[in-house]
Amino acid sequence: MVGAPLPRDPIADARRNWERHGWSDVAAPMAAITAIMRTQQILLARIEAVLKPFGLTFARYELLALLSFARSGALPMNKASALLQVHPTSVTNAVDRLQEAGLVLRSPHPTDGRTTLIELTSGGRTLAKRATAALNGEVFAQSGFGTEDVDALIRILGDFRRGAGDFTDP
């Protein structure tokens, strides 16, 4: 959070302004979307604060975590990009930084000369474990959401993402 808490919810104020300006039919969805965006900012700030002592951003952490889940500890860069749902340039930038820090290595794919593999180093695996433990304890276990709310959010946001074409499974 930045500064002291406000005396009123500015998103509720914005909703009332929308309604006063004759946009009542979209005031509630505007407030919901704005609340989601603000919630994302709050959660990302918490995550980044936990990861900062590890020298990681959330984007770099996500890549380390993804590689730590791979059976061999390695993935093709294009597959990492697809699984993280980010542009290949973003993965390249994260790999550059992680490689400079000695946490991942690039290598040619053994059977596809067009593909580059990214692989965790032992230091990368250790850091991923430590950072995950910190996130689990300081953010995910203390999310600020009740169990029923978490289940509802997963369902609601999953339905939205599916409808937006993010994934196809039922």
Quick summary:
Strands 1-3-2 form a three-stranded antiparallel beta sheet.
Task: Break the fold down into its secondary structure elements and pairings.
Elements: H1 10-20, H2 24-51, H3 58-69, E1 74-76, H4 77-84, H5 88-100, E2 104-108, E3 116-120, H6 122-138, H7 147-163
Antiparallel strand pairs: 1-3, 2-3
Helix pairs in contact: 1-2, 3-6, 4-5
Describe it for me?
Helix 4 crosses helix 5 (88-100). The chain is mainly alpha-helical. The chain has a three-stranded antiparallel sheet with strand order 1-3-2. It has seven helices and three strands, in the order αααβααββαα. Strand 2 (104-108) and strand 3 (116-120) form a beta hairpin. The radius of gyration is 20 Å and the shape is elongated. It has helices spanning 10-20, 24-51, 58-69, 77-84, 88-100, 122-138, 147-163; strands spanning 74-76, 104-108, 116-120.
Question: Which descriptors apply to this entry?
Answer:
170 residues, mainly alpha, 7 helices
Taking the alpha carbons of the first and last residues, their distance comes to 36 Å
| Main sheet specs | 3 strands, antiparallel
The dominant shape is: elongated
| Integer average pLDDT | 95
